[in-house]
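REQUEST ID: PR-0412
SUBMITTED BY: lab tech R.K.
PRIORITY: routine
TASK: structure prediction, single protein chain
INPUT:
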Amino acid sequence: MKIRAKEKMGYFFLIPSLILIAVLVIYPVFETIRLSFYNYRIQTLALGETFVGFDNFKRIFSDSEFFVSLRFTLIFTIVAVSLETIIGMLFALIMNQKIPGQSIIRTAVLVPWAIPTIVSGLMWKFMYSQQYGVINYILKILKIITEDLPWLSDAYLAVVATIIADVWKTTPYMSLLILSGLQTIPRQMYEAAAIDGANKFQQFINITIPLIKPVLSVAILFRTLATFRIYALISVLTSGGPANATQSLSLYTIKTYFNFGNLGYGAALATVTFIISLIISMFFLDALKRKLAR
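STATUS: complete
OUTPUT:
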């Protein structure tokens, strides 16, 4: 009886959290999905909502700007997450070694992640400036370029610039997750492998990678979902320009929703983005489940 009383008390204390989740998460999701089936604009609020069925979703598949945004988002996500994983792995391997100044190295690596995204975006925007940016200044000193590059006004360079800024900002997060996986590997396994004649590379391939696969998969999943939904950094850095070259799906959705006042179509875009993110999550979780089952 005492156990049941304690369980009831536990459920009672969970109620405020469940209400908060329902209000802040569940309701907005269902309301967005519901709104995606309506024609609803800020300019005509007095007329109310008009049910249009799947018309908003049909419009998406004939919207060239949507496919431009989707293309950039996919390229950005694949390249950025790949670089973050590789560089994050290198940093994690360094931080996992017993070397002088280890605590200082760990602190320095985590600094970019600690900087707010808005501040990071403004900082990179200043550094990329064609007139007074430090990036062009350094490249000219190193004789890599002879003229200032238009980092944020050229379509190709703007994509590169946003990827560099995102990799710099979030690689520490990736390295921290990978480091947590590395620290669970017993040192004795490396010592035994060394006795058997395995070099460092062979130890990395046959011991490190297999044992951190679950952690690595989760880290890649987190970063893939976050990068796929990127908004703040791009909004501050390029505002989606030039000519929508760096416009992500989230940025296009928010522009449609707030700037253009098309709430119904914006909700449909948000729903499609949510569905794509859900598919990505299911793919990663299924792959992770199969790896753990082996």
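NOTES: The domain at 39-293 is CATH 1.10.3720.10 (MetI-like fold).
REVIEWED BY: pending
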